[in-house]
Amino acid sequence: MARAKSSFICQSCGAAYTRWQGRCDACGEWNAIVEELVDSGIGAGPKSAKAGNRAVPLVPLKGETESAARIVTGIAELDRVTGGGFVMGSALLVGGDPGIGKSTLLLQAAAALAARGRRVVYVSGEEAVAQVRLRAQRLGLGDADVHLAAETNVEIVLATLEAGPAPHLVIVDSIQTLWTDRVESAPGTVTQVRTSAQALTRFAKKSGAAVVLVGHVTKDGQIAGPRVVEHMVDAVLYFEGDSSHTFRILRGVKNRYGATDEIGVFEMTTLGLSEVANPSALFLDQRDEGAAGSAVFAGMEGTRPVLVEIQALVAPSPLGTPRRAVVGWDSSRLSMVLAVLETRCGVRIGANDIYLNVAGGLRIAEPAADLAVAAALISSLTGSPLPNDAVYFGEISLAGGVRPVVHAGLRLREAQKLGFAAAHSGRLGEGDRLAGLRHGEHGQLLDLVGMIASKGKARGAE
């Protein structure tokens, strides 16, 4: 009998090698490479299944299109991130830290769909049926018509789903616990995760049911397992949050049927996750008004404008190498803003310890936060508090200019709705200016620095 072929696969990133080595060259992890069989299973190569010589019919590009059928959960924040509800026949991957509330949110979504007459199947690989029922009772969902199963074998799960009436939604918690007997490796390994995800994705396309897969995350915040799993599914959602805060953020990083980078905000309560209709008011709650180093940033998360507080602290450093601590923003972006302030604006700030924090635990990725960060840094350095009724947004160039950003009108309208009376940004278009809102348009960062510094000097003279 022919010897089964094997490969050495990194369990952190999925990179394959022909022989074992201690350190993965792709992700840098040590002792993460394990030998696995790769010539069999649901996700095996093309030679394991013959496609035959069947011709595929070609159709013209021009023709009638049909919108994807969706099932709306009624949870507005979840429907917003998914693009209007779960698409029938799609596969979604939901990741997040342990205990962040993934299972709670999906159980609430399952109960909401069941109340709308949808058939929902919840497959748990981590908890027994009694444990799932106990959590449902704690959330007040004990009477929901949701079908439960506690199973980890993929073949048994698929046989169970195909034996009964066709479900509208299938939730699998979690993909790392599933295994198939066609692959000779332990559950949770790269091969098992990949083959299990491929089998469930194929079931979703064939049956028309929406399949939601729950995935664990690594210490870096990425969904554990190979990146190919994220390419298999139609949408990837990350559940973010901090144990020190009560709110959670559901962020869509990939969506074939909706906008990416869309967020939904929830608050963790004793009865589960409740929706937050106005995230800006939540992030600005208990803002440090009148304190130096605090600036309000008017940002965009997908199609939603969000106002959030940027906090900066500039302190003299007793060390030869000053500290740089950043929470919620890109540390390399902070280094760039500091370099522009030093070189283009003449601000001597690099020798100080600098701490930057996005209040509330929100993570910001867009460069439009450059101007708010610079304003908070100068405010802390000069000891001059910024006006409480002003927001800041704009991208800073390496030449010291302030560039305009997209969706300026939406940012300004959100700021005006929450009572802000002034906005500092780059150049605005004619249709972006709002009546009743003072617009501070800055072509150069030096203009904003001079304005804040002058207020600080005037305050010191008093």
UniProtKB/TrEMBL annotation:
Cellular component terms per the entry's GO annotation: cytosol
SMART domains: AAA
Keyword check for Cytoplasm: no
Domain RecA family profile positions: 67-217
GO molecular function per UniProt: ATP binding; ATP-dependent DNA damage sensor activity; damaged DNA binding; hydrolase activity; zinc ion binding
GO biological process: recombinational repair
InterPro entries in UniProt: AAA+_ATPase (IPR003593), DNA_repair_RadA (IPR004504), P-loop_NTPase (IPR027417), RecA_ATP-bd (IPR020588), Ribosomal_Su5_D2-typ_SF (IPR020568), Ribsml_uS5_D2-typ_fold_subgr (IPR014721), Rubredoxin_2 (IPR041166)
Binding site for ATP: G96, D97, P98, G99, I100, G101, K102, S103
Taxonomic superkingdom: Bacteria
Region (Lon-protease-like) residue spans: 353-462
One Pfam assignment: Zn_ribbon_LapB
Motif (RadA KNRFG motif): 254-258
Keyword Signal recorded: no
Swiss-Prot/TrEMBL keywords: ATP-binding, DNA damage, DNA repair, DNA-binding, Hydrolase, Metal-binding, Nucleotide-binding, Stress response, Zinc, Zinc-finger
Biological function: DNA-dependent ATPase involved in processing of recombination intermediates, plays a role in repairing DNA breaks. Stimulates the branch migration of RecA-mediated strand transfer reactions, allowing the 3' invading strand to extend heteroduplex DNA faster. Binds ssDNA in the presence of ADP but not other nucleotides, has ATPase activity that is stimulated by ssDNA and various branched DNA structures, but inhibited by SSB. Does not have RecA's homology-searching function.
Family listed: Belongs to the RecA family. RadA subfamily.
Swiss-Prot/TrEMBL domain comment: The middle region has homology to RecA with ATPase motifs including the RadA KNRFG motif, while the C-terminus is homologous to Lon protease.
Protein name: DNA repair protein RadA
Underlying gene: radA
